[in-house]
Structure formats: structure tokens, C-alpha cells
Amino acid sequence: MGKDNKMSSPEQERRSAVQLVSALLLLLSLSGCSSMDVLVSSYINALNGTTVTIPCTFTSCYKIDLTKFAMNWTYQETLNNTEEKFMTYDKKKGMQPVPSNRFGDRVVFSGNLEKNDLSITLQDVQLEDEGVYNCYVRNPPDRIQGHGVINFNVVTELPPPRDSTIAVAIGASVGGALALLILSMVVVKCLRRHRKQELISEEKMEEEGKLEPEAVAEEGTK
After folding, report:
1. Half-sphere exposure (CA, 13 Å, Cβ side) for 51?
2. What is the 3-state secondary structure (H, E, C) of the chain?
3. Each residue of 36-88: pLDDT tens digit?
4. Considering the entire predicted model, what is its pTM?
5. Can you tell me the mean pLDDT for 125-145?
6. Per residue in 157-167, pLDDT tens?
7. CA 140 to chain CA mean position, Å
8. pLDDT averaged over every residue in the chain
9. Which of 10, 90, 98, 181 is spaced 20 to 30 Å from 196 by Cα?
């Protein structure tokens, strides 16, 4: 029994050390969590007259405290223009649109605060909606305000879909021509090598034929 206890003691010490290191790493990771990341699509193309969702989500080390949480959606015609707030979070009413002559009642909140989703939906997209959309988030005790920027482009028609069949056919044709070219080069190279070998063999035979009479003549003189 005593022998078994002595053998198990180093194993217990090793496990304790591993647990201690794991606990320290966990504490370090939690203590270093002082910022957030805002995730958006940098560029969005929207078809005029359609309904489009503008996504914005964020990652945070802390759960949302609705008594401290804050966020705003703003619009700019360009990055150099003044920002116009059109959606905000109200501690009593939740996500609320801000009266706007530009959007009217065409903007609605379509995200989910419990999932850190702050997305909005823009209905009946107009050419005048083109511009820069900003998603601002503050989630204490995160000390840094998160900010996502979306460049929103409105088009009157979508580009035609690419014909994958044509692309495949072109690729197959190019690939076939390339393979045929490589095969031709290999065949030509082999023929040249074979011809070179034949010429060398013929030269050797000619040299041997020239030497034989000379050798016979020498023997006759002796």
C-alpha cells in the first residue's frame, strides 16, 4: 500500500500543476478582455425598389446589460458628411427608429439583442439611400466603443449571372489545346532524339567501314 501511495504522489502533483496553469490562463484571458469586435459587410449592393437587410453583429466578453447597453445607427452621404442618426437603443423601449425625413418608416430593427445581432432592414430601397451606414455599439464593462462601417450602393439592375457552362466549355477547350500542344512537343522531341541516335549510328558505321580497308592494306604490306 505504501509503495502505491509513493507512486501516485508524483502523478497527483502533475495534475495539480496542470490545473493551476489552466486556471491562471483562464484568469489572464478574462482580465485581458476589454474590447469588442463589430462584424459587418463592408460593401452591400442593393437593387432599387427591393427590401434589403443590413447586417451588424458584435462579439463581446460580457453579456448585454440593458441598463448600460447603448447603440446607434447613423447615415452619411459620404464619409465627409455629417452623420444622421436614424436608429437607436432606448433603455425603456428597446430598439427604436429615430424620425428621419430620408427613411420615414422604411427602416425597421430586424436583429436580436440576445444574440448580439443589431441588424436592420431597409424597405423599398431608393437611389437616395446610397451612402455610408455606421453601426455603433457600447457594451460596458467593455471600455472601447465598437464601430462598423458599411458602404451601401444602390443599383437599378443586377449584373447578369455568369454562365458556368460556357466557362467550363472554354476551360475544357483551353485545357485540351494545351494538352495537345504538350503532347506534340513531346512527340517532336522524341523524334528528334531518335533521329539524332540514327545519325550517330550511321556515322559510327561509316567510320568502321573506312578503317577496315586501311587495316587490310597494312597487313598486306607487312
Report:
1. 8
2. CHHHHHHHHHHHHHHHHHHHHHHHHHHHHHHCCCCCEEEECCEEEEECCCCEEECEEEECCCCCCCCCCEEEEEEECCCCCCCEEEEEEECCCEEEECCCCCCCCCEEECCEHHHCECCEEECCCCHHHCEEEEEEEECCCCCCCEEEEEEEEEECCCCCCCCHHHHHHHHHHHHHHHHHHHHHHHHHHHHHHHHHHHHHHHHHHHHHHHHHHHHHHHHHHC
3. 899 999 999 999 999 999 999 999 989 999 999 999 999 999 988 999 999 99
4. 0.59
5. 94
6. 877 776 544 44
7. 30
8. 75
9. 181
Joined grid coordinates for residue 144 = 472601447
Nearest CA among 113, 19, 112 for reference residue 64: 113
Q: What is the dihedral of CA 111, 112, 117, 120, to 10 degrees?
A: 10
Note whether 111 and 64 are within 8 A (CB).
no
The dihedrals phi and psi of 17, each to the nearest 5 degrees, come to: -65, -40
- Which grid coordinates are listed for 28? 489572464
Residue type, 87: M
| Cell matching residue 157 | 439592375
Q: Which grid coordinates belong to 122? A: 431597409
Query: Which grid coordinates belong to 101?
Result: 425625413
3-state secondary structure 28-50: HHHHCCCCCEEEECCEEEEECCC
User: Which cell goes with 131?
Assistant: 451612402
